[in-house]
Amino acid sequence: MIKCSISDVKQYEGQEVLIKGWLYNKRSSGKIQFLQLRDGSGFIQAIVEKSRVSPELFELCEHLTQESSINVVGRVRSDKRAPSGYEMDVIDVVVNQLTEDYPIALKEHGVEFLMDNRHLWIRTERQSAILRIRHEIIKSAMEFLNNHGFIKADAPIITPATCEGTTDLFEIDYFGESAYLSQTGQLYAEACAMALGKVYTLGPAFRAEKSKTRRHLIEFWMLEPEVAYLEHEGNLELQEKLVSYIVESVLKNRILELKAIGRDISALEEIKIPFERMSYDDAIKTLKNNNFDIEWGDDFGSPEETFLANLYKKPLFITEYPKHCKAFYMQPNPNRPEVVLCDDLLAPEGYGEIIGGSQRIHDYDLMVQRLEEENLPMDIYKWYLDLRKYGSVPHSGFGLGIERTVAWICGLDHIRETIPFPRMLYRVTP
């Protein structure tokens, strides 16, 4: 007998296999029972025919309950009507635990109830499909970077100061001194890039921003590549190649999951490089021409980003924002110092910013000037200034928000479904 996962049953058509999993759902039509199984890798329907199994086994299956853990032996056969293309005819079932009073029925529940039971909600077909797509996004992003000579360099989560120049920090007591949960691994990635050339960090980031919008989490994950000797234009090209690769990988490897959540796959098939580009100046003109109350120098909110992104079917770069809108470390345009060599990459279909990137300041004196302008503590940033003091070179990088990318690729209404256990303004459990 072959022990296999549901995702691999296609390799064993006509053979007997053992699947260890859980009963997701069940229905009966008299002499036939239809068991929907899940094992973490996927879902499959197992058919129990009364005429082909013992009376004891048929009765046992009649009493199986939702989310009971079971081992099922069956013969795999193809079936074009099945979502995965395969079903199995049951030969034997062993019950590991018979579940009682499972709280999440396969019906509509309120969001707060589901969030309170998030540890169980993630077992449903839709939620598990989203989390498998999330895995594919992270795996493919790392695969792309690894294949292009990047080194993974881990950044600390506990830091001595802000990286983004904001006050939205979680302060902690670090043995009698103040420290903070990291907002980004970028500054440390810059140091590693000066040692290793091309690096990326992947880890959690924390923002104490009191936001309740569908796009914000308090704790989220960021992928942050950083490259020595890379300038603004090369940075844009790297971003679009990475995002295109991610989308292609999801379409190739997670098509069943995309179908399970009802995603419009044709919209993702439009994601080909090059992406669309628009300067901040042109974006302001476009918004003003469409009756937005906005002036040059204002930052964009969700309504502005959504409108601009909906002009195109592909992601849109907005480039060269005013200096005062952006972080202290961004390189000014040498021909126009009031704007910086930066970009926000907006996902189509109204999903807004998924990447923020820039060329970094590499001149020591200019970095000192910017720190002073932002009233940031020079002693805390001494190590960061050293990067501009000892062998400084032009360099660039960006941060890709994992959850916002998942929301876009999955076509989700709210970011709370993009991470196993979301942390939001009024939710820190389970």
TrEMBL record:
PANTHER family in the record: ASPARAGINE--TRNA LIGASE, MITOCHONDRIAL-RELATED, ASPARTYL/LYSYL-TRNA SYNTHETASE
Protein name: Asparagine--tRNA ligase
Keywords for the protein's UniProt record, in alphabetical order: Aminoacyl-tRNA synthetase, ATP-binding, Cytoplasm, Ligase, Nucleotide-binding, Protein biosynthesis
Enzyme Commission number, as recorded: 6.1.1.22
GO MF annotation terms: asparagine-tRNA ligase activity; ATP binding; catalytic activity, acting on a protein; nucleic acid binding; transferase activity
Localization, UniProt: Cytoplasm
Organism, as annotated: Calorimonas adulescens
Catalyses which reaction(s): tRNA(Asn) + L-asparagine + ATP = L-asparaginyl-tRNA(Asn) + AMP + diphosphate + H(+)
